[in-house]
Amino acid sequence: MIMKARLYDPRLDMFIAEMREAFEPFKAMFEQPVAITTQQDALRVREVVRQSAISMARPTAANAEERIIAGPAGDLRLRIIAPPRTPRCIAIDVHGGAFYMGEPAQNDGFNARLAAELSAVTVSVDYRLAPENPYPAGVDDCEAAILWVLRNARREWGVERLILLGQSAGSTLAVAALLRLRDKGLAEFFIGASLYYGTYDLTGTPSQIAQDRVAVREIYLHPVPPAERKKPDISPLYGDLKSLPPALFTVGTEDYVFDDSLFMHMRWIAAGNESELAIYPGCGHAFNLIPATLGQMADDRAVAWIAERIAGAG
Questions:
Q1: Which of 138, 153, 188, 226 lies most in the core, judged by the most C-beta atoms within 10 Å?
Q2: Whole-angstrom distance, CA of residue 191 vs CA of residue 187
Q3: Is 109 a member of any domain?
Q4: What pLDDT, in 10s, does the model give residues 28-72?
């Protein structure tokens, strides 16, 4: 008898209609032009998104501290939220924004939750954005920020266990930086990586191609020739993934990078690492930012998963 496997709990289907209704007010933001070819285009779309309903509604943490460190090309800003109790780990957060927009404060709500509930210090990286700063600026900044944390963690917070957080383009940059750090012999400091809807193949997975969402990254990759875009520093899916920490890959079934999480989850396991795949039906890109049940469930699962990693690390 042939058994039909489900990639997610079918009971989640009851929340699809609610998600689609909740998504309606934010459609304009998510339907921005995908071909951003000039600096003027990027600046215009950044401002539209910054003034959108979803951005204006994001909470900010009153206790967030701005720290300036030395980066690869000058000052590099970090946004730090410290917990009210003795820290148990440090969460390095890499925000999303298609490589050309976004800022650390957009994740304050989730990061403040980690600080309050899990006693995690959160450090968000204000990496340089395209088109002003195309590849490899973003991943260079993420690597530099993590190295700074590793050098200062014990003195600043008394703990050296790291959790890596990423969303969208931030997940891409987070994994690329993690591969660099693994090659430097620093993978042992990471106890987990929670990665939402990352783009792990910048040459285009089938789901990206089907939704015609490949050109959006041209502004980040220019002038890298197509023949070089499968190198792991750009498309981590093609990297040697051995000796990496446990990972949680979160994605919606209607996301244009749906395949990226499926493929990376399986390659993570094939390389001998632990991985979990959290799939949410009827959900598109950045669905956890929408005020609906499925988005809240995704964040709840991520928090619980991170708590398990911290507990397991002792």
A1: 138
A2: 9
A3: yes
A4: 666 555 556 666 776 777 666 666 655 545 677 879 999 999 999
Q: Is the pTM of this model over 0.90?
A: yes
Residue 69 structure tokens:
């460190």
The answer to whether position 17 is within a domain reads no
Summarised one tens digit per residue, pLDDT across range 277-313 is 999 999 999 999 999 999 999 999 999 999 999 999 8
Q: How far apart are CA 37 and CA 218, in angstroms?
A: 7
Is 20 part of a structural domain of the chain?
no
18 vs 254: CA distance, rounded Å: 15
Decide: 97 and 107 in contact? Cβ < 8 Å: no
Helices 293-313, 16-23: inter-axial angle, 10-degree rounding: 110
Q: Which two tokens stand for residue 72?
A: 């690869």
d(C-alpha 242, C-alpha 245), whole Å: 9
Q: Rounded distance, CA 13 to CA 204, Å?
A: 28
Q: What are phi and psi of 67, to 5 degrees?
A: -125, 135
**Residue 6 CB: number of other CB atoms within 10 A?**
10
Among candidate residues 9, 5, 7, 15, the one with its CA nearest the CA of residue 283: 15
Tell me whether residue 270 is in a domain: yes
